[in-house]
Amino acid sequence: MTMEPGPPQPRPRALRMRGTPSRRPAGAKMAAALLSRLCRGPAGLRGPARLYAARPPLAAAPPLLLSRRRPCEHPRPRSFSAAELVRAAPGPLQPYLRLMRLHQPAGTWLLYLPCTWSIGLAADPGCLPDWHMLSLFGVGAVLMRGAGCTINDMWDRDFDRKVARTASRPLAAGDISTFQSLVFLGGQLSLALCVLLCLNYYSIILGAASLSLVVTYPLMKRITYWPQLVLGLTFNWGALLGWSAIKGSCEWSVCLPLYLSGVLWTLVYDTIYAHQDKKDDIMIGVKSTALQFKEDTKQWLSGFSLAMLLSLCVAGMNCNQTFPYYSAVAAVGAHLAHQIYTLDIDKPEDCWKKFASNRTVGILLFTGIVLGNLWKQKDLKNVEEPLENR
To answer: Long-range contacts of range 184-193, CB-CB < 8 Å, 24 or more positions apart?
Structure first.
């Protein structure tokens, strides 16, 4: 009995998935071969490890997946430099902070350090300087340097617009008006007066006498090739004021040589500073010692440095300074010699670097003054207790 073939029966699902090579379409064969190669993995992998080898590399993953798998990055620590603090200040406040050069503290240090020399030399033998006075003069230096820069920019706003290095200053760039600067100047001088009133009457009069120098210094570059000398007379007034604030009056045998050494020091570093702008100064008609000395600058700076060291030795001898002080004077001389020898007056960036390094000169001398004073023997009459208190 023969049976007629019936309709084809559907295969079980497992068999249909597996299929036979003879009935598999060409596209399916190619897909199967590709899948087999992908699942094969590197040599040596067997079993389930092949599944992991077949995964796409991490670099092929979507960006969102990569961001989830990336390890946590620690935030970069913020810098606490003066420039960063000014940039972090509120926008409306920034032009005023830049007007007082708070983002460039080198000038504030150069104004403050002669004060510390004087305060240190005036301390009692074997004692540290008066930290209250050091703090008070530090605040005063910030305010008076800011006031001096404000006055300078008010006088020179037209000149500053013509010099690339100064064209971005707030007044020259138009960020604030002249009237706003004048009001800001009044605020700075008022606060500085409050600091000055904390001193004795002699020091108040002496400090007020320096105001004429602060106001007239910016005009000197229009009149003479020696504006750096006037700046030295202004910037080193603290060498007189610090001593009088401690002692009640100036002892001129110490204060005058110290003051003179500061003036000579200013002639060194501000002449270096002026070489940054000498090309622009010639074009706009501004005078400076850089234009006066020209190629003989290093010889002049060497002479000023030698005279400074001599004045420091005279001041030290007149207040009975000791070995650490003179060691610091020698270190100052070595620093200045290296500074002058390596100076390239035709490279503005090198001039700025040498100018800013003078903070180290001032700190070296202050350290020597403090150590030299501690080296001294204390006066037994000042430390001996009365017999009845023993």
So the answer is: 184/96, 184/99, 184/100, 184/150, 185/147, 185/150, 185/151, 185/154, 188/100, 188/143, 188/144, 188/146, 188/147, 188/150, 189/143, 189/147, 191/143, 192/140, 192/143, 192/144, 192/147
- Length of the chain in residues, anyone? 390
Q: What is the pLDDT of residues 294-342, one digit of tens each?
A: 999 999 999 999 999 999 999 999 999 999 999 999 999 999 999 999 9
Decide if 309 contacts 265 (C-beta within 8 A): no
Tokens of 328: 């610091």
pLDDT digits (tens, 9 = 90+) for 47-93: 444 444 444 444 444 443 334 444 444 444 455 688 888 888 898 99
Residue type, 254: V
Q: Is the pTM of this model over 0.90?
A: no
